[in-house]
């Protein structure tokens, strides 16, 4: 059975809503950390999201892959940028990471349907 990254991110978002309600201070702290880490700086927002995706792939986190691919699509990532990032992930993580790099490609293809994205950068 193939997984749907749209379903995964929807389901996790719903569960995160429960956590937001039941442990609000923890979620607020995590959100503040994310906001600070992703704030404009020397690295572009796109670069920071590519790094986040690389860590999600290396950690074998389906929801991380889904959320960061969605963010990358919003930021206009090109397929070439995505593929180079996944090549570095595979180099650093070997075979298991290659399997999750393939999942990131599936997420990109599923979540970018109907959205215009550049072919290369």
From TrEMBL:
> Which is an annotated GO molecular function term of this record?
peroxiredoxin activity
Which SUPFAM superfamilies does the record associate with it?
AhpD-like (SSF69118)
Q: Where is the Carboxymuconolactone decarboxylase-like domain?
A: 24-106
Domain of life according to the entry: Bacteria
The record's annotation in InterPro entries points to: AhpD-like (IPR029032), AhpD_core (IPR004675), CMD-like (IPR003779)
Q: What is this protein called?
A: Alkylhydroperoxidase AhpD family core domain protein
Provenance organism: Accumulibacter regalis
């Amino acid at each position: 059975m193939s997984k749907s990254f749209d379903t995964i991110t929807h389901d996790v978002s719903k569960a995160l809503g429960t956590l937001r309600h039941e442990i609000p201070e923890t979620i607020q702290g995590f959100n503040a950390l994310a906001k600070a880490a992703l704030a404009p700086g020397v690295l572009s927002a796109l670069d920071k999201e590519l790094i986040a995706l690389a860590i999600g792939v290396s950690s074998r986190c389906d929801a991380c892959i889904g959320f960061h691919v969605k963010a990358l699509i919003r930021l206009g990532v090109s397929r070439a940028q995505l593929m180079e990032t996944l090549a570095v992930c595979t180099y650093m993580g070997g075979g298991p990471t290659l399997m999750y790099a393939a999942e990131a490609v599936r997420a990109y293809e599923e979540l970018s349907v109907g959205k215009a994205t550049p072919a290369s950068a």
